[in-house]
């Protein structure tokens, strides 16, 4: 579906180096915060465009964007706005952002997440060489930290003092990023390179709640070089997830999309799925159970996850207890298995616990 309205503050036809795309719906206040934190960072980078795709918000989002566009234009910052005539769903809005983005690199960011001050400065040197030409980086993983109230007061840094690592082995990328391939604000992709590779149109994945995998995993499959930014340039707002089946999306859909996008490469798909079972599911399930969040449909989770992962021992050892045992016992057990999972992770990646020289 075509957007109802489209505006642009730039007449330039040159392809930007980077598009930061923000899909939004009825989160005017969160969007204000995201744009205010990003705005002063953009002044130094005229080769970056910002695209905001409004999914027919009924709140003050149009007014917020009109004011932001005026401010941005006064500083020479490219801000493009599209507004859909009706809500087309989050997946379709993400895909709309991807198709509309003109940048050689593409960074989809949630409207409730923040690129913290200095975050853009961490990223930009990796997207171009010393002569200002686009680099050969396929993926950049921007690590993150969670916050609920004040992203500055709750700021977290890398405990090992790392700045970044360069990865050339795609299996290392799979192990380091793992389930975070699904976090939309955490992956910067080389869209120009992806356009030159055989890949499915992201629209084919609408309805899975994981369309973002469609532009990241093909680059992992045809990998050359990736970067991990360890200084946590993204602050991820906690507590906003709702409206989907956790078991179905991160069971059937995750496994299906990963194997579909990484065909014949269990060396790349297994680290993503196994980490999800060992560490991510136990943590998120306990958080959801403790919060009493019924919108994620935990009552359906066991059936959905067992159907997908029932033949994987990690489901029964790590995930199942966190989902079904009495909450106090599940929390205690998961503390122990989390330490085991961390040891497994560190054993597989022995070189990633020191600063890159």
List the helices and strands and how they pair.
Layout: E1 3-8, E2 18-24, H1 28-42, E3 48-54, H2 61-74, E4 78-84, H3 90-100, E5 105-108, E6 114-115, H4 119-123, E7 139-147, E8 164-167, H5 170-177, E9 187-190, H6 191-195, H7 213-221, E10 226-237, H8 246-261, H9 266-291, H10 301-309, H11 313-324, H12 327-348
Parallel strand pairs: 2-3, 2-5, 3-4, 7-10
Antiparallel strand pairs: 1-4, 5-9, 6-10, 7-9, 8-10
Helix pairs in contact: 1-2, 5-9, 8-9, 8-10, 9-11, 9-12, 10-11, 11-12
GO molecular function, one term: transferase activity
Organism: Granulicella mallensis (strain ATCC BAA-1857 / DSM 23137 / MP5ACTX8)
Domain Glycosyltransferase 2-like: 19-155
Name some characteristics of this structure.
single chain; 357 residues; alpha/beta; Spore Coat Polysaccharide Biosynthesis Protein SpsA, Chain A; 12 helices; 17% strand
Describe this structure in words.
Residues 19-155 form the Glycosyltransferase 2-like domain. This is Glycosyl transferase family 2. By secondary structure, the protein is of the alpha/beta class. The protein folds into 2 domains: 1-240, Spore Coat Polysaccharide Biosynthesis Protein SpsA, Chain A (Alpha-Beta Complex); 243-357, no CATH class. 43% of the residues lie in helices and 17% in strands. The chain contains 12 helices and 10 strands. Strands 1, 2, 3, 4, 5, 6, 7, 8, 9 and 10 form a 10-stranded mixed sheet that branches. Helix 1 (28-42) links the parallel strand 2 and strand 3. Helix 5 (170-177) packs parallel to helix 9 (266-291), helix 8 (246-261) runs antiparallel to helix 9 (266-291) and helix 9 (266-291) packs parallel to helix 11. The protein is globular. It starts with a strand and ends in a 9-residue tail after the last helix. Mean pLDDT is 93; it is low at 1-11.
């Amino acid at each position: 579906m075509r957007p109802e309205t489209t505006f642009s503050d730039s007449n330039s036809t040159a392809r930007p180096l980077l598009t930061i795309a923000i899909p939004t719906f009825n989160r005017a206040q969160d969007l204000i915060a995201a744009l205010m934190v990003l705005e002063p960072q953009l002044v130094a980078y005229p080769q970056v465009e910002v695209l905001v795709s409004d999914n027919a918000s009924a709140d003050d989002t149009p007014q917020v964007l009109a004011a932001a566009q005026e401010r941005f234009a006064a500083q020479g910052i490219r801000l493009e706005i599209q507004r859909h005539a009706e809500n087309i769903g989050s997946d379709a809005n993400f895909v709309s952002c991807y198709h509309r983005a003109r940048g050689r690199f593409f960074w989809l960011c949630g409207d409730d997440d923040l690129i913290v001050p200095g975050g853009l400065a961490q990223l930009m040197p990796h997207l171009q060489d010393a002569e200002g030409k686009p680099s050969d980086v396929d993926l950049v993983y921007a690590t993150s930290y969670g916050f609920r109230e004040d992203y500055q007061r709750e700021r977290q840094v890398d405990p090992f003092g790392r700045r970044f690592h360069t990865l050339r082995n795609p299996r290392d990328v799979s192990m380091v990023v793992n389930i975070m391939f699904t976090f939309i604000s955490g992956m910067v992709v080389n869209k120009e390179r992806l356009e030159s590779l055989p890949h499915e149109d992201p629209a084919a994945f609408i309805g899975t709640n994981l369309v973002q995998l469609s532009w990241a995993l093909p680059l992992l499959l045809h990998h050359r070089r990736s970067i991990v930014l360890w200084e946590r340039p993204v602050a991820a707002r906690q507590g906003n997830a709702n409206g989907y089946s956790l078991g179905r999306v991160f069971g059937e859909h995750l496994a299906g999309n990963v194997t579909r996008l990484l065909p014949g490469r269990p060396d790349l798909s297994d680290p993503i799925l196994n980490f999800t079972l060992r560490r991510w599911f136990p943590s998120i399930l306990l958080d959801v159970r403790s919060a009493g969040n019924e919108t994620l449909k935990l009552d359906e989770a066991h059936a959905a996850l067992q159907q997908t992962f029932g033949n994987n021992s990690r489901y029964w050892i790590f995930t199942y207890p966190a989902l079904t045992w009495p909450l106090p016992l599940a929390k205690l057990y998961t503390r122990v298995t989390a330490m085991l999972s961390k040891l497994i992770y560190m054993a597989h990646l022995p070189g990633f616990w020191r600063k890159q020289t």
